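In response to reviewer comment 3 from the previous cycle, which asked for concrete evidence that the modeling workflow produces usable outputs, we include below a single protein chain processed end to end. The sequence was submitted unchanged, and the resulting structure tokens are shown without manual editing.
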Amino acid sequence: MSVSLNPMTGSDLKNKNDQTAHLLNLAKVPFVYNPDEGVQKQGNEMGIFLQSLAKKEVEHKTWIITKACFEACKIPASHPLFLMAKDIADLIDSAAPVGTDGATYSGKANGYHNARHMQEVVLNAMFLLAVYDARQAEISIKLDLEDKALLLFTALSHDLGHDGKTNREGEKIIPFRMEKLSVAYTLPFAMKYMNEDEVKKFSADFETLVCATDIGSYQDFFTETLAYYHGEEDFLPDTTGIPAELLPLASSKKLTELAAMLCDADIFSSIAYNFSCCWEQSLNLASEISGGVSVKAEERALSNLVGFHENSVRIKSEVGKTFSPNFATIKNNAKVLLTAQQMQGSESDF
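The workflow returned the following structure tokens.
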């Protein structure tokens, strides 16, 4: 669907370009991956970049980042997902309220699931796509422009309107609670830029991808399905009792791989780059869950960091496996600190 865009003036364009240059270097990670340089070095650069980026404040930050990633993947500005991303990024940047409970599109009050996280997941997805472009001959799943657009868009919107809570109510897990909210907040934008058939296709794929990021629900089904498509299992897992939101994974290798790439992008800032970046993210998440920075939050952070590895990294896309050496380094560092602080028995949130 083609939608006309408001033309930018020369001064507007120069200002936007200046802001982009201030935030991003399009000649480095995450926009470019060099297979000869080594994944650990580039992972370290990515961690430093993300921490530096978080300290830079400019207007329209989420949109500047998202637009740069879409353009780097050669997704045209008339593409529905490009247009939807612009609307959603503007709402994130403005910290506009969503619903009536005080939550915002940006998750402004959250210590972890906030605009920074949304920006970083888009950039992590961009990094994975840069790795894919550099290593296409080694990757069995072939991604086209539509796949890249869907991955980047879903990376932006997967935690839209996050309320800072988990999918738990006491001891009970409510599968896809937060993910369903993000889907509900996103679909009106699809109806703005897509026809009925396009909305139906997009909403089905988008819901599956977003729900796959709920690592606390049906993870075995997801990981076993992914292992089958990677040639590591002989049979697809039994789909008995699997909710409709995830059933499409059992019939689509590409959708499963995109879901794995999204999960990688969602957690790579916490497990795949330098230890400083990963520790900061783990502390932010522990702070969010415990309601603020506290001794308890700090004690939980290392335990959670180990938990990320022992649970979340079972979901790895073909591209994501590139970062396995980084996973091991971060995990070992976290375990050393965890032992040193005698926190083996600390409660983990995973």
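The chain has 13 helices and two strands. We consider this sufficient to address the reviewer's concern, and the full set will be provided in the supplementary archive.
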